[in-house]
């Protein structure tokens, strides 16, 4: 059987900004392969190129040298990938349904099919009851759930999430982590999630990647073999294996900053 083509394939990617003496190399040279069903979490110091990496994979930016491929082709911005940012970035004058309708229309879903797809998306993110509410009538955590539903609207093969829970309170953040974990579990698509939180990384990931200080390069590529089903979130977070993985990632992050352990 031929080896499965990676969903994302990054070869010797370098991304620089500016020219001459003032040029900044944000990323690279970076190699990365991601397969369907993987949930890759990227951790790294500020300025290590995490957001740059997501922009390259989404197709909104291009490499200075090297290549990025999604399903074997250069990614098409706004089509192949669903994106979630730190702020929900919803249309504030629309209802939740209105926001999802806009995303479904953009994704080419026919008008008559949209109500069922909307309901399915809201169900998936645990918001079946709030479709008629305006954005300002729902909490920050609920707004971020809508943003996740919107990112899923076009059934993308890849989800990119750039610190999506960083602005939420600790309890809401844990609930959303748990729901995102279940939501993506066993899914065909892949995910790349950026965070500064080592706990969040280990909880969500099937694989954690630590980037070095600028220019960002992979310093740790760690599989996370924690069970995806059959144990509660509290059991998982309290397990010895979780602590071991957290320790390994924390050490790698500290090493990138040259902070003594
Ligand atoms: N459009 C741009 N023009 C010039 N420099 C840029 C641009 N975008 C990013 N950079 C620089 O590239 C480097 C990497 O930025 P990036 O935002 O990808 O880092 P990051 O790891 O996501 O940081 P943070 O954790 O603070 O969000 C930084 O030094 C940043 O200033």
Q: If helices are DSSP runs of H or I spanning 4 or more residues, what is the number of helices? A: 8
Assigned CATH architecture of the largest domain: 3-Layer(aba) Sandwich
Strand content: 15-25%
What spatial form do the alpha-carbon principal axes imply?
A: globular
GO molecular function, one term: ATP binding
Protein name: ABC transporter ATP-binding protein
Keywords: ATP-binding, Nucleotide-binding, Transport
InterPro entries: AAA+_ATPase, ABC_transporter-like_ATP-bd, ABC_transporter-like_CS, ABC_transporter_ATP-bind, P-loop_NTPase
List strands and helices in order, with pairings:
Blueprint: E1 8-17, E2 24-34, E3 39-43, H1 50-58, E4 65-70, E5 81-84, H2 96-106, H3 114-124, H4 140-152, E6 158-162, H5 170-184, E7 190-194, H6 198-204, E8 207-211, E9 218-223, H7 233-237, H8 240-257
Parallel strand pairs: 3-7, 3-8, 5-6, 6-7
Antiparallel strand pairs: 1-2, 1-4, 8-9
Helix pairs in contact: 2-3, 2-4, 6-8
The chain binds adenosine-5'-triphosphate (ATP).
Folded structure, characterized:
- By secondary structure, the chain is α/β, with parallel strands linked by helices.
- The chain has 2 domains: 8-80 and 156-257, Rossmann fold (3-Layer(aba) Sandwich); 90-155, no CATH class.
- It has 8 helices and 9 strands.
- It has helices at residues 50-58, 96-106, 114-124, 140-152, 170-184, 198-204, 233-237, 240-257, and strands at residues 8-17, 24-34, 39-43, 65-70, 81-84, 158-162, 190-194, 207-211, 218-223.
- A 6-stranded mixed beta sheet has the order 5-6-7-3-8-9, sandwiched between helices. A 3-stranded antiparallel beta sheet has the order 2-1-4, with helices on one face.
- Helix 5 links the parallel strand 6 (158-162) and strand 7 (190-194).
- The longest helix is centred in the last third of the chain and has 18 residues, at 240-257.
- It is globular and about 50 Å long.
- Adenosine-5'-triphosphate is lined by residues 17, 24, 26, 44, 46-52, 214.
